[in-house]
Write a structure and sequence with these properties.
The chain has 334 residues and is α/β, with parallel strands linked by helices. It has ten helices and 13 strands. The strands form three sheets. A seven-stranded mixed beta sheet has the order 3-2-1-4-7-12-13, sandwiched between helices. The longest helix is centred in the N-terminal third of the chain and has 37 residues. It binds 2-acetamido-2-deoxy-beta-D-glucopyranose. 2-acetamido-2-deoxy-beta-D-glucopyranose binds next to β10.
């Protein structure tokens, strides 16, 4: 939870391994291409065990692993060439991620302006944190909000608190204030009332930890109920994610493993206390003792509740009369 946000997890994993392998190489740990390869492969396999829901990490690890195998088996391969190729690829991932986010922001903002009931007065609601603190920079769902704001086509952004770990009130709220985007915090249970009472909220925009082949989407717990209320109120429900979040091997949402997290996150509320003027992270128990707790981190939103999936390559919509997205056809058409 120190590193969070599916795209950021992949980038941090790739870059931290780049630092580690370079340090080891400088210390003369690798005598051959094979030894460097072995270390990189073992490390990538270990990194993949860290978070079960975020697919970007698996995708990044597979790409890096293929590259490692290739450089290690090339003519004239040495520890030098294997390490250098790995480091360069990890750094390129960071550069590409930011550009992908900017493209998501642009495609998403275009789509919302085109499909909103009144393009003159667009407010949006977002959930969890998908901004520069969850990605390499810029953000996915928050990238769309930034883009709308930059074009002066955003009236207001609302963000949920995102219980139990408050990524919305701690991180998204911080980013919105920092960017000077007019914004208001609500707690998760206020979303339906907001849509009823503020009809200019014309879209809910969320990120994704994984998108199945049919478009079912795993995202932060609470996303599913937001999609239901979006449908009820007839507004857009947009999923913003890089195409690396699409996992064609996951046929539908039923196949997605949902991470469950410790009860402490739910029974305690954490924040910052100023002790002797120094900001100090603090956690206080707010739930009754001995109560049972269920704390799934994610839920799955079925494709029929999603209006569009915005990727860096373009916007995916359903064919008329279909309930599901054809993510494979979209990826192949690119
Ligand atoms: C939860 O809060 C209690 C104090 O109310 C504290 O003693 C405990 O360490 C906290 N748990 C966590 C995991 O922070």
């Amino acid at each position: 939870m120190k590193t969070r946000g599916a795209p950021a997890i992949a980038i941090v994993a790739a870059l931290s391994l780049a630092v580690d392998v370079q340090t080891r190489h400088a210390n003369g740990e690798f005598q051959s291409a094979q030894q460097a390869l072995q270390f990189l492969e073992d490390s990538l396999a270990y990194l993949k065990t860290s978070r079960p829901t975020a697919v970007n990490l698996f995708d990044a690890a597979a790409k890096l692993s293929a590259l490692n195998q290739q450089t290690a088996s090339a003519a004239g391969a040495s520890a030098d060439t294997v390490v250098a190729a790995y480091v360069q690829a990890a750094e390129q991932m960071l550069i590409d991620d930011v550009q992908d986010n900017k493209n998501i922001g642009k495609f998403g903002a275009d789509f919302i302006v085109e499909h909103a009931q009144q393009a003159q007065d667009i407010s949006v609601l977002t959930h969890c944190n998908t901004g520069s603190l969850a990605t390499a920079g810029w953000g996915t769902a928050l990238g769309i909000i930034r883009d709308l704001h930059k074009r002066q086509q955003l009236t207001h952004a609302y963000c949920t608190e995102t219980r139990p770990y408050n990524q919305g009130s701690r991180l998204t709220a911080y980013e919105l204030v920092y960017e000077q985007i007019p914004a208001t915090l609500i707690c998760d249970s206020m979303a339906s009332a907001l849509l009823k009472l503020r009809p200019n909220v014309q879209a809910i925009i969320v990120g994704a930890d994984r998108v199945a082949a049919n478009g079912d989407t795993a995202n932060k717990i609470g996303t599913y109920q937001l999609a239901i209320t979006a449908k009820h109120h007839g507004i857009l429900f947009i999923v913003a994610a890089p195409s690396t979040s699409v996992d064609l091997l996951t046929a539908t949402g039923k196949d997605i493993v949902i991470e469950e997290r410790p009860a402490e996150e739910l029974v305690n509320t954490s924040g910052v206390q100023f002790l002797d003027g120094k900001p100090t992270p603090t956690s206080v128990r707010t739930a009754a003792q001995h109560i049972g707790v269920w704390n799934p981190s994610f839920d799955v939103t079925p494709s029929n509740l999603i209006s569009a999936i915005v990727t860096e390559r373009g916007v995916v919509v359903k064919q008329p009369g279909q309930d599901a997205f054809d993510m494979a056809a979209f990826l192949q058409s690119q």
